[in-house]
User: Fold this.
Amino acid sequence: MRISCPHCGERALDEFSYLGDASVTRPDPAAADAADAFYTYAYERRNIAGPTQELWYHQAGCHAWLVVTRDTRTHEISDVKAAQDVALERVNSTTGAA
Amino acid sequence: MTSENQAFRLAGRGVVDRSKTFSFTFDGIPYEGFAGDTLASALLANGVHLVGRSFKYHRPRGILTSGSEDPSALVELRTGARREPNTKATVTELYDGLEATSQNRFPSLRFDFLAVNSLLSPVFSAGFYYKTFMWPASFWEKLYEPMIRRAAGLGRAAMEEDPDSYDKANAFCDVLVVGSGAAGLMAAISAARSGARVILADESFAFGGRLLAENRTIDGINSAAWVKAAIGELSSLSNVRLLPRTTIFGAYDGGTYGAVERVADHLVKPAPGQPRQRLWRIVAKRTIVAQGATERPIVFGNNDRPGVMLASAARSYINRYGVAPGRTAVVFSSNDDGAATINDLANAGISVAALVDARPALPDAITARAEALGARIFAGGVVSDAIGGSRVKGACIIDASGATHTLSCDLIIVSGGFNPNMQMTTHLGGRPQWRDDLAAFVPGAMPKGMTAAGAANGSFSLASCLAEGARAGSAAAADVGFDAKPIAIPASDEESNGISAFWHVDRAKHKAFVDLQNDVTAADVALAQREGFSAVEHLKRYTTLGMATDQGRTSSVNGLAILAQLTGKTIPATGITTARPPYSPVSLGALAGEHRGKHFKPTRLTPSHNWAKEQGAVFVEAGLWLRALYFPKPFETDAQTTVIREVNGVRNGVGVCDVSTLGKVEVHGPDAGKFLDRLYINMMSTLAVGRARYGAMLREDGIMMDDGTAARFAEDRYFVTTTTVNAIKVVQHMELCKQWHWPDLDVQIVPSTDQWAQYAVAGPRARDLIARIVDKPFDVSNAAFPYMAVAELTALGGIKARLYRLSFSGELAYEIAVPARHGELLMRTLMEKGQDLGVIPYGTEALGVMRIEKGHVGGPELNGTTTAADVGLGKMASKKKDYIGRVLAERPGLTNPDRPRLAGFRPVDRAARLRSGAHFVGRNTEPVAANALGHMTSVAYSPSLGHWVGLGFLSGAETRMGEIIRAYDPVRGEDTLVEVVSPTFYDSEGARLRV
Ligand SMILES: [Zn+2]
Assistant:
């Protein structure tokens, strides 16, 4: 498998390490249901057959975390974004809404 | 050599180099062959057909094919450390001095005691692994396994270390062409002429594939000559890389292909510095599978006898190697291509005794030719059995009317049609498709960027191979942006490709083999089906059909065709087993490459490693690092004596320990404090500039991740340390927090473990020594630089340095860091300037003893199951903020007061030794798992206290202080009474730290 790092270009799989689902985000620790929300966040992960968003780390490269869209059935990668960009968008949209 | 030498070599035929004669031995007997021979062709040139004994039945076996699909011509190559078992004679390139030995025979190839296994064949039938050796269990180890190992199995691996080296390389290209027959060459030329970067790989040492093996005409010249011209053009192009002797063994995601290049397998031994093999990782934008097709045998009685040979192989030996595989042949076919082999046989002067074809009617041209050759023609007939033992002596033929004929011959040429070599197209999950007109599976949907051309695609005629190859090559190049057009298709001579599916002669009198390498017969397939194993994947596992090193390339389709006949299903409905990499065996040496022995992982040495080595330090691996464990004096006979001396040296004077391996991270930015607050359980934003603080971090599930110190050098500049083994993991975690959890924080993380050499200077005389190291006017007095103070300064006369007043040992102590390149100088200077203070170096063992005496937790306590509260850091956790792991650390299960918590333990009998791993049970309680209260994690003999001390986790530790319990160690058979005490054994007030 090859991943196109937005900073370094297309690189071989062995430069990266995998973490997990990028569609879940760390819950609000101040929320009333924080205990349940963190439990779900830490342990209850889906096992999807199809396109998934995953967090990968460019360990042997630029140390960027990446959000990789990969089809688990074919390993086809359709999109790679810097996780920080995705996260900033998420943060800005929540603060904008509030 | 006598005139008998190479008696079967044909004059004026083949592409071997007759000017280069090579000597070789087989089972110790000397022979000669030519450059360009394989071991198989050279053996056949000398009339040697019997080359081995089979896996289960020890039946004599010969040379069935001329390629990497051969199931039976397996030999041991070379001797000593280079001895290599199960090498296919059919692809082994002959070299001068080659030594080969037959396998699996006892005591000799011709006479084999264990051929009686054939008489025991009911024992070895389908599923014998599962049935015969089931009971009683104790018999397995003592009787069955040694017996099977002796009787079944193939070659012997070398017992010595492989003396050769193996290389790894990466390559990138626009178009990868796999196979260099007609389709492959046309594809490569079409793509290459457009300027695309092309890699052309072929498993053979000679390019050309079947074009070398067939006597065909292209553009008016012989096919072998046409190949020479095509390769000439390709090798003149700078955008083309030719990889002969290279097997593309697997297709992987993202256009990645694994390949093994046999760089020096054709030499007695590699030249100095030359690798034996090279493992390629090829990344290709487009790939053309042009690997041709593999002929299938027809399953009949004694079809494994030496002298039974595939038609395509016979043509290879005649046309490519100039070798007659026999004198008199019977041809048994089900298709035009096989039947037309009579032409090649006749050209080679081999008499054709009979043409037996399962089809009731043959093309007129073939019938006419057979008649002209004086061959008997059996249309609609079969060869039911081969006659002969270690060599074919005749064929038993049943004609269309059912009458039996026995003919003498020394060669039975077989052709049951062709299976496209499309394994690569299925490596990523593609399913092949059945084509009735070809009686074969062809590639189905292929992975992105892959196409198949020529025989691999089911297009068997030469004309279609040439045309498809040209189209595929130009299409692939055009696809990736090159202006590519198909090149002109050269004219080729005509052929016919009719076939009628025919698999198995059910009237055979003798064993009829489907899988020659695993000794699986047609009867085994039938037995498996009767016993309910009628799904192809079950059949494969139960009979082992297709599971050998040949990957069932000559056997799997025949096996499932027989199964289909038995079940009454069609072949496509019966299905096909999944082909997985590797296409053909890859040596472990090639996969390991340079990563062997100590090269498996790099060894990291600290900047003053050489100094420590000079002192005679004993080293220990800590992650990738080598750390000094202790520094024995010549008169010290055991490690404990040394460690006690080192501990006493620190506690009573001053010692220096290399702590450079600790993970080090710079955390900079206006939000650095806020960021660290969210990472650590305690507050870091409140840390004063010029001070350090111990900190602990959790995983999100509330379990301890790591501990270390944070030092603050400026408002926006922190420096944190991690444990040695977690250095990389913690940086990765920090980056995740920064980039993914809190991208809006203005903070930067720079790992700097390798940038600093750092030394702990500990003991009552530490200040005296440090004062001699740092540059004036820096004041190291307790008032100016108290416990937990940090500073950036210079040392050793102008060298940038950092000084930390941290103590792991419990003594007055400092850690001093200088840029890594000055580490050795600093260490030598510390030793020199501290001589009159009695300075000693100490290793990680003494460090560990002192940390246990002080009750500091280490690796055995931070074991991935313990919380901050478990290890006694509960009070450190801030209630004023959120941090990673806070929420889940508060789960009831983790805050249960009965959870084992950190405590100290000392033996009631002060002379007794403690053991880590011992389980705690109440003094009067039975030592069973249900009564376990926890376990001991770290123990040491404490030189400071004069007895053993231990740390461990104990349920209800706080309420059990002073209680006497049992430390029960069933592994070592020890049962020791211990007293529960505070984990801090030494200087519990911390007075010694603050002086
Ligand atoms: Zn990168």
